[in-house]
Amino acid sequence: MGRIALRPYNPVMATPRKPVVATPMKTGIPGIEVSVSKEAVLVRSDLPLRVLSSAVAGGGRTEVRWIVNRHVPKGYQGADPVADLTDFAGRQGIHEPFAGLMTAALMERAQCVSLRPDS
């Protein structure tokens, strides 16, 4: 069986010290905004959303206006993922409860899709 080599956690790479520059996406859902950057996908709602999630930060059954899906390096081994997400969210101006996830997937390839029933 092969071995997987994990790179050491690099806090500079995982958490830039400035807000990210994100591209807004149209959702087709009134009151919901999505923005995408290399660092994260941010979802903001005008009204609180009832969510049930396995998010690292703010997971479980809760109400939030923000969902943060943060890109981290493959093999991320942060000592405190909740603190990492909270720090990142704060730099984005998010100072309220949020659901925060982490992924090594490329965020800039994220897309927004809205399904509508046939008429």
Explain the overall architecture.
The protein has 119 residues and is mostly beta strands. The chain has a five-stranded mixed beta sheet. Strand 3 and strand 4 form a beta hairpin. The N and C termini lie far apart (54 Å). The relative contact order is 0.24. The N terminus is likely disordered.
Brief overview, please?
With 119 residues, the chain is mainly beta. The chain has helices spanning 11-14, 81-91, and strands spanning 23-25, 32-36, 40-53, 60-71, 98-103. Strands 1-2-3-4-5 form a five-stranded mixed beta sheet.
Strand content: 25-35%
Average pLDDT metric:
81
* Biggest sheet strand line-up: 1-2-3-4-5
Largest sheet: 5 strands, mixed
Radius of gyration: 15 Å
Structural class estimated from helices and strands: mainly beta
Poorly predicted spans: 1-16
Looking at how many chains there are and whether they match, the oligomeric state comes to single chain
In whole angstroms, the N-to-C terminal distance is 54 Å
